[in-house]
Design a protein that fits this description.
Elements (H helix, E strand, L loop, with lengths): L1 H15 L4 E4 L7 E5 L5 E6 L1 E2 L17 E4 L3 E4 L12 E3 L5 E2 L11 E3 L5 E2 L12 E3 L5 E2 L16 E3 L5 E2 L12 E3 L5 E2 L12 E3 L5 E2 L12 E3 L5 E2 L12 E3 L5 E2 L11 E3 L5 E2 L12 E3 L5 E2 L12 E6 L2 E6 L4 E3 L2 E3 L6 E4 L2 E4 L7 E3 L2 E3 L11 H8 L13
Parallel strand pairs: 3-5, 4-6, 5-7, 6-8, 8-10, 9-11, 10-12, 12-14, 13-15, 14-16, 15-17, 16-18, 18-20, 19-21, 20-22, 22-24, 23-25, 24-26
Antiparallel strand pairs: 1-2, 2-3, 27-28, 29-30, 31-32, 33-34
């Protein structure tokens, strides 16, 4: 009987310690160790320097069991794929880590992440971490491609992004972040392709220093109503395509606009005093757009820039120029639609007409109305008349080959 009890007790000890083990996980052998607790739920990363990078086929005995990771302040990086696929991992502490290598926490169940020392967030570092609700990375300067990407068929939880020192946001970094409502990136100068594409609940973006928007950056951001981009010079293709609620954008320094950049947006008016070149269908089917301001010298590549808007419609090529069958705000000329009426005059049916309306009415289509019938933004008569009678709003558009 005593021998049997001893064997049972021994088996219990073996079972309890089944997971306890130390692993060499340093980029330089012997510098960093990964210690797995007896129950397999906690991994402690000790030592000095960087964790090593892993391939998908490499053994990481902790992946199937760990729920938390504790990293020593003297460990400076989380290795590539170190915790990729750790489907039970919900908590990580990493006070001294400066670099998250590619796919470091890809596919985990982290809820919140505090990264006080991190400067670089690698590609796919938190890809498909749908449980992630908040991130704190006050010193991060670079966010890699697909860093917080979520598959379109998944439901992410991240609601806000605060990256006060980030200068570049990678391609697809927050694509499909459907719960995301606000973004604070005050020092960012470039947002790469698809960075926030299909973030359908995104409402507020603070990015005063952004100079370049890649292709599809805010495509299908259907809750975004306004955005202030005072430093912006270049917009890629489809950047605001299907941003159906976007009624206002401030981009006084914009120079280049790519194809379909504002296709099917909600814009009502836009001023671009420094525009150099605009590509095909840049504002097409933004059906509420009634005013566009740009230099006469601006090059309009290809055609159909304002097709399906209030500005022009039914454009055809005549003698190498684009004639627009309906000019609305503009007067028809031999070289396209132009606005050339002086102060106190409005373009009506291809001619300039003096407004005879009282201050509380808006002159439109030969009648004095209480408000614009076609504008999504509901201007008061005083606002509308002030805008219409301002010489600065009179511009000329020439449609070139």
């Amino acid at each position: 009987m005593k021998r049997l009890l001893f064997m049972v007790a021994a088996l219990g000890v073996c079972s309890f310690n089944a997971f306890a083990a130390d692993y060499d996980c340093g980029k330089v052998p012997g510098t960093v160790t990964c210690s797995l607790s007896a129950d397999g739920k906690t991994l402690t990363v000790n030592g000095t320097g960087e964790m090593k990078n892993y391939q998908n086929s490499d053994s990481r005995p902790w992946l199937s069991t760990i729920e938390s990771v504790v990293v020593s302040p003297t460990v400076t990086s989380i290795g590539e794929r170190a915790f990729k696929g750790a489907s039970k991992l919900t908590n990580v502490t990493m006070p001294g880590v400066k670099t998250l290598e590619n796919s470091a926490f890809n596919g985990t169940k982290l809820v919140s992440v505090d990264m006080p020392s991190v400067t670089t967030i690698g590609q796919s570092a938190f890809e498909n971490v749908t449980t992630l609700q908040s991130i704190s990375a006050p010193n991060a300067t670079t966010v890699g491609d697909k860093a917080f990407f979520t598959d379109a068929n998944k439901t992410p939880s991240l609601t806000s992004v605060d990256l006060p020192k980030a200068t570049q946001i990678g391609g697809q970094a927050f694509q499909n972040a459907k719960a995301l409502t606000s973004v604070n990136i005050p020092l960012a100068t470039e947002l790469k392709y698809d960075a926030f594409a299909s973030a359908t609940n995104l409402e507020n973006v603070y990015a005063p220093n952004v100079e370049t928007l890649g292709d599809r950056v805010f495509k299908s951001c259907s809750s975004l109503e306004s955005i202030d981009l005072p430093s912006l010079t270049t917009i890629g293709e489809n950047a605001f395509n299907d941003a159906t609620s976007l009624t206002e954008i401030n981009m006084p320094n914009i120079q280049y606009i790519g194809k379909n950049a504002f296709y099917n947006s909600g814009l009502t008016s836009v001023d671009m005093p420094n525009l150099i070149e605009m590509d095909d269908r840049a504002f097409a089917y933004s059906s509420n757009l009634y005013y566009v301001g740009m230099p006469e010298s601006a090059t309009l590549k290809n055609w159909r820039h304002f097709e399906g808007t209030q500005v022009t419609s039914g454009c055809t090529t005549v003698n190498g120029y684009k004639n627009c069958g309906t000019c609305n705000r503009y007067i028809m000329s031999g070289k396209g639609c132009v606005a050339s009426c002086g102060k106190n005059y409005l373009p009506e049916d291809g001619r300039c007409v003096l407004s005879q309306c009282d201050d509380d009415k808006v002159f439109y289509k030969g009648a004095c109305l209480d408000e614009y019938p076609f504008a999504k933004k509901r201007y008061t008569p005083a606002e509308a008349n002030q805008w219409l009678n301002d010489d600065e709003n009179i511009i000329t558009i020439t449609y070139k080959k």
